[in-house]
Write the structure tokens for this entry.
Amino acid sequence: MSVIPALVRRHCLIFFRDRMNVFFSMLGAIIVLLLYITFLKNLMIQSVPGEYGSSLMDSWIIAGILAVTSVTAALGSLGILVSDKTSGASKIVTVSPVKPIQVAASYIISSFLITMMLGIFVLMCAEVFIAVSGGPLLSAVALLEVLGVMIAGTASSCSIMFFVATLLKTTESYSTACVIVGTLVGFVAGTYIPMGTLPEAMRNVVMMMPVSHEGMILRQIFMDVPEGLYFEGASADAVHQFNVDMGYVFNVGGTDLSIWISLLFLVGTAALFLLLSSYMISRKKD
């Protein structure tokens, strides 16, 4: 077995054996879901009364949960990197033919695979939740679109969190980062509170976050059918205002951002932080 696949397998096995790490990786999604079920759902449904209002809000929150998962799972999966640094396991690089770039690649690839697996698990649970709630399930085409967006969002989140993990030097700092990210990611993703209720400055901050763009695209996929049913016969202006308020679309300077711009933003941030991480690794090597 070649070096990178062997290391990827090692990282994945270590991650899934640590139940606490898996829990913290899902912490952000768990927080959002609990807040929605216990408090936010009843509050939000009041603003969209009607037959399909509940399904519309369920789809809105599920999209946000998937986006949040890509961040918390990415950071959680990279706990192995921090643990290896503190335990000295990463020093294998200095006494073996394994190159630093191979080790770095193994962490990134394993993080991507773990995050996608957890994301798919959340997606399956989400579809069960929507079905039990009486909402419309995603079509086969829509599911493929969701997976495509998840791949782009996961790539972005993993590259950013890998850069963050390279800066963390102790398991304590890593645990603190997990709690902070797990708590705040719902806000910066525009998941806890609809965009329309935020001050303009805060809306601008949210739209600068890659995870919020992933959530926005996912909302368009998940909410497509229930929104069409709920707003049947409504004016285009009313639908557009609802979309802007709920983060279904991002409006910048009076212009709605296209999905392709958001996807490009996700891919661009993935590339940028991979380059930054490569630079950090090369500096440490020197």
Q: What stands out?
A: The chain has one domain: 3-285.
